[in-house]
Write a structure and sequence with these properties.
It is a single chain. This protein is an alpha/beta fold. The chain folds into three domains: 114 residues, no CATH class; 195 residues, P-loop containing nucleotide triphosphate hydrolases (Rossmann fold), CATH 3.40.50.300; 91 residues, no CATH class. It has 16 helices and 16 strands. The protein has a seven-stranded mixed β-sheet with strand order 5-6-4-7-8-3-9, with helices on both faces. The protein has a three-stranded mixed β-sheet with strand order 11-10-13, with no helix packed on it. Strands 1-2 form a two-stranded parallel ribbon. It is globular. This is Helicase C-terminal domain-containing protein. InterPro entries: Cas3-like_dom, Helicase_C-like, P-loop_NTPase.
Length: 427
């Protein structure tokens, strides 16, 4: 087991599947664990999927790093995305388009119509709007994507309480354990005589292959709007265009998008949409994307990239490693992993996890953990510590909701119950 892990973690294979986090924290790191993989990137072809998710503040840094790999290590990079960011500028011939006349292919699609409403509304107003539409269109599948867990729960509970006939309701967010999320997604994808109403957070954008008639999306950046539009009439199987409706939701303090996204990117999105018609079609999206990323590139600060590049030039690799963060939690909440003992299988896995502490040899302990890691992670969620006050009688640094208290702290439909702010055992 440990030998296999050593080979896997060292990327000792001709074909490697990994994440952005693993990849970029490997090429921008001074840590031994990461540097073990570094040499395998030479003489390679690196395919980066959905590259638009890279934060704009790192565009210059990654441009320089990627260019260095290409020039000195014979590494080829292929960007795969329908919404190409301007990390490399095609107008300056910094990148080669592999598909000639790509605009032609975008013009051929006519699956969705986008309606943009930039006038802010509160959740009560939105409830009236969405309730009216789901009642008026009883045969249409709906997807509602919200920016915050709190707003998504609010809207889901409201719609679920309508108890509409011939309707199945689904809620998706990261406060549902991965095992149950996957089960829900598989159910959504299955054909059914009942129409579906799905309420989700942004996780629906990350490769979740579902297909609905109508999407409502709380205001977000252009690339996020594009991603969720891809869940509407995805397979061109609907008799008419799908509808994607973008609304701006707010609470008593500010627009909900401000809790999640960079104000800079939100402002650029708003600028682009103000210049566009209130109704858009799929053929319009490529020019919309190009305009958005051009505004981002032309007006964004490169200070953070320049600072990190200066660390490279001055050999300050420790500072480089500590300051580079591909995922930035805008909310800034410290989080804790919580094991949810949802069923009998989880009870057995938790018992095995607890027994790990009795194994004194660290290598044997790690080897044993690896045998349960996959199943263990299926019951793991990550929640803000402010919503989960923990005692830690045993030093495992992980929260724990025991089977006997599941009904109190975990809802089978909506996951972790935030409102209770429990003081739970952290075992």
């Amino acid at each position: 087991m440990l030998k296999s892990l050593f080979l896997i973690e060292g990327w000792n294979s001709e074909i490697i599947f990994t994440t952005f986090i693993q990849f970029f924290h490997t090429i921008i790191s001074n840590k031994n664990r990461s540097l073990r993989k570094f040499h395998t990137i030479t003489n390679s072809i690196v395919i980066l999927d959905e590259v638009q998710s890279i934060p704009h503040k790192y565009w210059l840094l990654l441009k320089q790093v990627i260019s260095g790999f290409a020039e000195y290590f014979n590494t080829y990079f292929i960007f795969v995305t329908a919404t190409q960011p301007l990390i490399f500028d095609p107008e300056k011939k910094e990148i080669i388009e592999l598909v000639e006349n790509k605009d032609k292919y975008f013009r051929e699609f006519d699956r969705v119509k986008l309606e943009i409403n930039l006038n802010p509304m509160n959740l009560d107003e939105f409830k009236e709007l969405i309730e009216s539409e789901v009642k008026e269109k009883p045969k249409k599948d709906f997807l509602v994507v919200l920016n915050t867990v709190k707003s998504s729960l609010n809207i889901f509970n409201h719609l679920n309480n309508l108890k509409l006939e011939n309707t199945t309701y689904y809620y998706l967010s990261t406060n549902i354990i991965p095992k149950e999320r996957l089960k829900k997604i598989e159910e959504i994808k299955e054909k059914s005589d009942k129409r579906k109403i799905i309420v989700s957070t942004q996780l629906i954008e990350a490769g979740v292959d579902i297909d609905v008639d109508i999407v409502y999306r709380d205001f977000a950046t252009i690339d996020s709007i594009n991603q969720v539009a891809g869940r509407c009439n995805r397979n061109s199987s609907k008799p008419e265009r799908g509808e994607v409706k973008v609304v701006v939701l707010k609470d008593e303090r500010k627009e909900l998008n401000r809790y999640i996204y960079s104000s800079f990117l939100i402002d650029k999105t708003r600028d682009v949409l103000k210049e566009a018609p209130s109704e858009l079609y799929e053929k319009d999206l490529i020019s919309l994307n190009n305009s958005y990323f051009r505004k981002v590139k032309d007006t964004s600060s490169e200070d953070e990239s320049n600072e990190l590049l200066s660390y490279v030039n001055e050999l300050k690799f420790k500072s480089l490693t500590s300051d580079f963060r591909l995922i930035d939690d805008k909310a800034g909440y410290e989080k804790i992993d919580v094991f949810v003992e949802l069923d009998d299988k989880a009870v057995e896995i938790w018992k095995e996890y607890i027994l790990l502490k009795s194994i004194k040899d660290p290598l044997k302990r790690k080897e044993k953990y690896l045998t349960i890691r996959k199943e263990f992670n299926e019951y793991l969620i990550s929640v803000p510590k402010k919503d989960f006050s923990c005692e830690e009688p045993e030093d495992l640094n992980i929260g724990y909701i025991p089977f006997e208290q599941i009904k109190r702290y975990y809802d089978p439909e909506t996951g972790f119950i935030f409102e209770l702010r429990p003081t739970m055992m952290c075992d």
